[in-house]
Amino acid sequence: MTTSEHAANPGAQLSEAGLVIERHWQELASRRRLYTLGGIAFMVVAMGGSLWFANETNAGKLWDRLPHFFDFVSMLIPRDATEVWRALFDLPSPYDDGSLKFNYPEGRIYLTEGFYVPQYFYKMLETLNIALVSTLIGFGAGFLLCFLAARNLVANRWLRFFVRRFMEVLRAFPEIVIAGFFLAIFSLGAIPAIIAVSIHTIGALGKMYFEVVENADMRPEEGLRAAGANWTERVWFGIVPQVMPNFISYLLLRFEINVRASTIIGAVGGGGIGEVLRLSISRGHEAKTLAIVLLLFLTIVAVDQLSAYLRKKLVGDQAFAFGGER
Amino acid sequence: MVLLSASEVDEIASRHPDAFAGSSRRRLVSWGLAAGTVAYLVFAWWFFSVGTVMANGRWDIAGVYLADWVSYEVRPRIEFEDGYLDISYSRGDPLGENANPDWLVKERATVQSRVIVPDTGSGSGGGTSSSSGSFLGTVNGEPAPTGGAASSKPAAKPETVLREETVRATVAIGSANRIDIAPGVVTVTRGTETLVADIVRDESVTARGPLPSWATQRNPGDKIAVSFGFPGRADIEDDEVKISHRFWGWENFVFDTYSPFWGKSAGEVWRLVTSGQRIDPARSNLSLAWNNILYNAEWQHLDVWTKLLQTIVMAFVGTVLASVVAFPLAFLAARNITQNRLANQLLKRFFDFQRSVDMLIWALFFTRAFGPGPLAGMSAIFFTDTGTLGKLYSEALENIDDKQREGVKSVGAAPTSVQRYGVVPQVLPVFLSQSLYFWESNTRSATIIGAVGAGGIGLKLWEAMRTNSDWENVAYMVVLILIVVFVFDNISNALRRRLVGDRPI
Asked: Which value, to the nearest 10 degrees, does the dihedral of the CA atoms of residues A133, A136, A141, A144 take?
């Protein structure tokens, strides 16, 4: 099985031509080995250098802090198990001493006189709404843009080039900068988060969509063209019906990603659950942190499952397992 | 070719109504979806009170912030003194404290100014008198000249001295706008319109005639704000005129105003560096210039580059570690490789857990553990992506072609050899390609989680944005990030294409 067995007595039973092939194979194999070794050596050096650099520029040093790696677990141990429950549903705590740590009922958001939504549920809902609104906005704009970037629909190279680069910039532009800019204009709140996530979503969905459009079956479009349909009619009746399941499927995938993204943007001032999570962790409120992490975890799992189920219904077992872009 | 007439089409349609009408249920569903979406968006409008927030947005500031990305302002302050003008610049001004731009023309003349020289009470020493005089009568940073006679004068008697001072300043803002400032009267010209304002020092500002549309005044006597659009604006107050003159570009990008190389042309700097006299005797001009660039006070090149490298390193190390850890775990999680339901399920749920606890949560936790810096960020990426990559790897393993494995097994290979020669060659390109994909996407996410304290350029960006005055630095960092993302996208795409061809993954 190994190469050395061949190399031990080359050409014992081989003809002239066989020898040439054997030698060529040996050369290829050794070159391949060289590449592999070179690649591994490069990776080792790069990793070593990177780790050293990261360690040098970090506030705490790796070896000093490594024993504290699992310190965060201690931030998650509440005074008793039911405390998490109380924090989650804003029930009064027996430990309440007037501090922020145990003031769960103060977060209640009353819809009517007697009926309230617990704070974290409300915040989670806000984050979900941010994600959903920006996904829908991104879908609308991405839908309109993608047809202009598809090679099979637009003959003008420059229009295609321009639309593609535009979407690329929207996608690569750091969300946090957009959020920060609009935070400066609107002050704290959800709108900057919506704008930031939407802009990124337009770029990301637009790119995926035009790739779908380029792989579409052109026969319906040709038929419509033969019948004298104009560009809009051709796209609307010839392309849209066949790409729509894929579009919706990507939309759902994007929604999953956007729930995470809006949580993160929330943590830097965009409101929603991310903000309360950051505050609670930095203030060391165990029960609150655990309640939020639990809620966030369950929501993300639920959203992922729901989206996976809907996608399977829409496009069957087509390969959308790949996590997509974040 | 058969051509159908309209009546024939109608006939066919009436014969096969269902084929032409389409499914009414389908149509109903799509209309319902559209209506639901619209209703939801209306709800969201109310939920986030978009209208109110939009109305309260500080849109005027938005324009200034946007302009700050690609331009800078020089802000001379022209103060009205007793009969003359005092022009000064703030410490951080792009032209330095002692600027003398050619668009600000000063007319100098000898003026009589009254200097109050208080008597110290002891009434004898010229030394004490002049020292207190230099404290109270300071003009333009220089001690007011006090003659020897001053000390013998009675207490707090105003005294007249002759000096050369600026009596008139003309500021050209763009080609069509001019501000003409003299003690007591300011004349502003924008295009063909002119505004003349009379100033009673420390009391009031009054315009002669009605204010043009480009000037505003809240109350009579208050300051008048004049706007010239992009090139600048000015505030005419009762004791000074504040001018902001805007120029395109990033000011002092290479050398700041404290550097000896500041304000020199590229050729001059080149000559200084290659053959000039040593400015700092301790080191060569080249190292001095390089040092000045790295520690540019305004742009902080060294810090920005370090932080950017941190972000890159975070993504790189996080992804590589995650791949290395996920690789063996995926073999245990794949049900066709490890025939142990319990191990499969446990690992798969573990992967799900890591994936679903968001990268943000990990980042916040590890920032507590390691302190702010790239170690926290890379740990967060490592934890999240071990889950994601583990899931993807194990799915790839479950989809392999069993024939190769059986072939290797049939010749009596050991279990590890079966994996090495029967499985790994099939999945390795897919694994590498997926890792590359995540490397690329992590470079982007590393920027964002940096802002919560996980190190890298994210935090620096966030700090620059918080001040609301360093938008040009934000622009600089964004440009660097875009370049990095673009370069890495292309590297990763090229490598992926070599590994798996044009197959979309």
From this structure: -160
